[in-house]
Amino acid sequence: MDKPREDYNDKQVVSEIMARCFIPTLVTSISWEAFHFAGHEIRITEAMDCYGAVVWPSALVLCYFLETNAKQYNMVDKNVIEIGAGTGLVSIVASLLGARVTATDLPELLGNLQYNIFRNTKMKCKHLPQVKELSWGVALDRNFPRASNSFDYVLAADVVYAHPFLEELLLTFDHLCKETTIVLWAMKFRLEKENKFVDRFKELFDLEEISSFPSLNIKLYKAMKKNRRSA
């Protein structure tokens, strides 16, 4: 019996996405992984003792989408913020595609994040990415005042999992987005919490599923704030 075409396409695209990552043959004292996106080899240093400093498949899915849909979602000169940037791979790809990027994460991850971003974007990008601390739901008005921060895109990969800060994450999405801001969000579904968060998210945002990868349990969403006046 033939496989359904949707399943075939899923496996084909997932294979292409995963092929963007390869293990270097060069042995060094510092372990790193290499990725091919936006016409560049990107070298990422990970920390295996921390979830936030590992490249997860959702990040690869989002990077692949940004690269292969660069005309529809043009990053050139756009103000982009990534929340939960981790190793910085998504921010690096957005920067290589021409965006003005602010990569954010918890304070303990900023050292590795800054290192990866600097080594992969120096002399390669139109705009040098910025790295900032962002603890979800904390001091948002002070650190990211609405009056002086206007983002065209908010990027997020695998920010929803079994952590106790889902309400703070939702508050952060809401704070960073204006009515014209586009959220591009890749999420791996693991537990019921993910479904509940999507339901809560849809109370504030119009959510559209733009890609699905069943073999990875990952969905890619586009979202924009609901027009609250009409709502």
The outline comes out as globular
Q: Could you give the order of strands across the largest sheet? A: 6-5-4-7-8-10-9
Which band does the percent of strand residues land in?
Answer: 15-25%
**How many extended strands?**
10
- Mean pLDDT, all residues: 88
Low-confidence stretches: 1-5
Q: How big is the Rg?
A: 17 Å
Structural class, by secondary structure, is: alpha/beta
Count of helical segments?
7
Can you tell me about this structure?
This protein is α/β, with parallel strands linked by helices. The chain has 7 helices and 10 strands. The protein has helices at residues 5-18, 57-68, 89-96, 110-121, 140-143, 166-176, 192-204, and strands at residues 21-22, 33-37, 40-44, 79-83, 100-105, 130-133, 153-157, 182-188, 205-213, 218-225. The strands form 2 sheets. The protein has a 7-stranded mixed β-sheet, with helices on both faces. Helix 3 packs parallel to helix 4 and helix 6 runs parallel beside helix 7. The longest helix is centred in the N-terminal third of the chain and has 14 residues, at 5-18. The chain is globular.
Top keywords for this entry?
231 residues; alpha/beta; 7-stranded mixed beta sheet; 3-stranded antiparallel beta sheet; 7 helices; 10 strands; globular; disordered N terminus; Methyltransferase like 21E, pseudo; transferase; protein methyltransferase activity; Methyltransf_16; S-adenosyl-L-methionine
Structure, briefly:
The protein is an alpha/beta fold and 231 residues long.
SSE diagram, text form:
Layout: H1 5-18, E1 21-22, E2 33-37, E3 40-44, H2 57-68, E4 79-83, H3 89-96, E5 100-105, H4 110-121, E6 130-133, H5 140-143, E7 153-157, H6 166-176, E8 182-188, H7 192-204, E9 205-213, E10 218-225
Parallel strand pairs: 4-5, 4-7, 5-6, 7-8
Antiparallel strand pairs: 1-2, 2-3, 8-10, 9-10
Helix pairs in contact: 2-3, 3-4, 6-7
